[in-house]
# Entry
Amino acid sequence: MEISANLPGDIVSDIFTRLPVKSLCRFKCVSKSMYTMLHSPNFIKKHTNRAIQKDPSMILRTEFRLYAAEEDEEHSKVRKLQVPFARSLEKIGISGSCNGLLCISDQRHDEDIYIYNPSTRVYRKLPVPEFDIPTNIDSTFFTSLGFGFHQNDYKLVRSLYLYDKPLEDIDSYKCEARMYSFSTSKWRKIGGIPFHIRSRVAIMVHSNFVWTASRGLGTGMSIHVVAFDLDREEFWEVPRPEIAITRQCQIEVGVFEGRFSIYYMWKNDRVEIWTMEEFGVKQSWKKQFVIGPNLSLDDGFLYLKPLLVMRKGKILIEQGEGELILYDPRSETATNFKIRAAPRWFRVTSFVGSLVSPFHNQ
# Structure
């Protein structure tokens, strides 16, 4: 392939894998050979892998809009993202981010699902999964989604809870789950979940979708962490650290420095960040650090969600809706992280720009 008269094609390709998507899109019209290179699966894979190694960008989500923010240790600014299908959604929800693709669903109805690459503005609408709903069911409720990349294929898991009694009885339900594969463009049944999923969105770690979950109601409720293993296609319970969870404590799951993590948030007190050094092994839990209790509180709970580790080891943390802080674990100090022109209320999703197509494997 001759793109340049002075440089071999493999060198040109390597240089281009380091460029942002916006620049690459401009080059698509330069020549046929350039267009072919930029659409090559091998080039897209190399470009995506390089992008993942860099500090990710951020997507800010409000109820009706998406914004992109470039982050560093100085004040950032945002730009509004075009969402071609936004009018078909009552309320935008991001149900996952993987290799430059966003899984977007309607937060109010939970039926329509879109896979969207905001860098290239290409999207696809997924078919609605079919569930077997008996006539005696009192109500149905979509609760959770998981979206990720596994064995060269993008996969999505969705669950549906079928209630044959009023919702006050949270244990009176049947759960069905379906998995969608880009390679087959079909949903298929994968069994039920023996827990009540609490988190709307799964995190993905080591070929597993992971959510917080519960059993029981009120004083009898117990908190769990449940995962779906994409290799075995089975649901299983992830062991937690030996820490009692009461009404004074909430938990969130995440990925911190590449490892599965749990954030314990105590009311009017502190947040502990634990990481699992060997996924699935209970004895490998390690407490990384504690934040608080000298930070401002939101509704009594110190809600902190680590987003990414930045330069000099500082951690960018989401604190409630519309607030970001930069925490230094060495000095145990936190400073506000401001984004110019950001909406007042927003949630943050980590994101990398890529050329990956929502029609991958088709």
